[in-house]
Amino acid sequence: LSAFLSPNLNKRTDSWGGSLENRARFGRQAVQAVRAAVSDKLAVTAKVNMNDGVPGGLKDDESLEFARMLQDDGALDALELTGGSSFANPMYLFRGDAPREEFAATLPPHVRLGFKLAGEKLMPDYPFEEAYFLPKARKFLEALDMPLILLGGINRLDTVQSALDEGFAFVAMARALLRQPDLPNRWQAGTATESNCIHCNRCMPTIYSGTRCALDHPEPLTVGRPLL
User: How confident is the model at residue 141 (pLDDT cuts 50, 70, 90)?
Assistant: First the structure.
């Protein structure tokens, strides 16, 4: 669905490509079909890039326009705001140190050398900061009435509370919970105020052998289908 929306990837010349309205058609119809299938029995959410983080990709203004389309369609209960490209720039999403050596270990030998040579271009480092998507997400919060889900480097309880106070309906967390699955319980009990995830991103290459925190579970990585 993201590929259809991205002008960098969607090169179709029919009614499914070209203008934003055309590129958005498949995603909108998918959301509407899911809503029709579940009626009001389940909450329906979608996840959309605010920015693809690649030249020629989806940018903030088009993403916001697409979000307005989804809001007007009325089929979603909430919209989750993200960014980056699994194919072209995964580190735009993850931020922090890029685990290039660890990813190389998961690749077949004939691909590994090429990745080592071009790894810094394929997976550049991005500075990590708490709630790094918040500035972009605020633009969506100001422009939309639908419930929004904030993600991106959320590790502290005060960040969660601040986001909720600001108007976000939910926050989404991944790496922090891989590191400490019981983190919300610790917050509730008052025994912790933030995750001890160090944002090394070494969990990323574990997708072929069971996603896990590589610090707590340093089992050998498994060679699998190249992600990039």
Answer: very high
The total of other beta-carbon atoms located within 10 Å of residue 31's CB is 21
Closest CA to 139 of 34, 214, 67: 67
> Which CATH number belongs to the domain containing residue 116 in this structure?
3.20.20.70
The number of beta carbons lying within 10 Å of the beta carbon of residue 140 is 22
DSSP label of 50: E
Q: What is the mean pLDDT of residues 96-115?
A: 88
Instruction: Name beta bridge partners: 83.
Output: 51
Count of structural domains, the chain: 1
pTM of the predicted model as reported, rounded to 2 decimal places? 0.91
Flag whether 14 is in a domain.
no
In terms of Cβ atoms closer than 10 Å to its own Cβ (0-12, 13-18, 19+), residue 211 is middle
Q: Taking 90 as the threshold, does the pLDDT of residue 110 lie above it? A: no
